[in-house]
Design brief:
It is a single chain. By secondary structure, this protein is mainly α. It has one domain. Helix 2 packs antiparallel against helix 6. The radius of gyration is 19 Å and the shape is globular.
């Protein structure tokens, strides 16, 4: 449990919120690439969806988590499609879509590095595997987006891959220590209860 602004939030709840934020942000970047390429609504839907769920899909498949998250909960697809439709009609409004795309891409990398690593830790993998899964979750949706959108793959050209690896590594260490502390506290409570009875 973590206390933020006087509200106690569990790690799982925080991961779910970050995951939804990441889906929306990355679906937006996919739709913005479709806008830059002047695609039709189907192109918007395709790029928004593969960007939003692509990295997490690969993560789930590599971890053996089936069905993958968006098959188990199709709301993820519906949100990606809603983002695509909204931006199909409004993407011409931002003056500089490239600048917005780069900012949102960075935000999405950070969010998905954290949630990807957390999902991997929840699957009881080694911390080094969790770092790899955080990096895969953060980068592969954008790589698929760039390939389908006919762009140079932004993640491999920039510092994004290094930053997402670093962020997921720090997060894995923090979550691992927090979970260890929670387990130890639980064990101590159980031991104290058994001593008192």
């Amino acid at each position: 449990m973590i206390t933020l602004y006087g509200t106690t939030v569990s790690i799982d709840e925080m991961t779910v919120v970050l995951d939804w934020m990441g889906i929306i942000v990355f679906a937006t970047t996919g739709a913005l690439v479709a806008s830059r390429k002047e695609m039709d609504v189907v192109g918007f839907a395709l790029l928004a969806t593969v960007t939003g769920v692509g990295g997490g899909t690969l993560r789930d498949l590599l971890l053996g988590l089936t069905p993958v998250f968006w098959v188990a909960n199709p709301t993820y697809l519906i949100v990606c499609l809603c983002v695509a439709c909204f931006l199909f009609f409004t993407a011409h409004i931002p003056a500089s879509r490239l600048r917005l795309l780069l900012w949102l891409d960075g935000i999405g990398l950070a969010i998905f590095a954290v949630t990807g690593a957390e999902r991997a830790l929840a699957a009881d993998v080694a911390p080094v595997v969790a770092v790899a899964m955080g990096t895969i979750t953060a980068t592969f949706g954008g790589i698929i987006r760039d390939i389908l959108g006919g762009r140079n793959t932004h993640h491999t050209q920039s510092r994004g891959l290094r930053y997402s690896s670093s962020l997921s590594g720090r997060h894995v260490r923090w979550i691992h220590s927090l979970r260890s502390c929670t387990r130890n506290c639980h064990r101590e409570r159980v031991c104290c209860r058994s001593r008192n009875t």
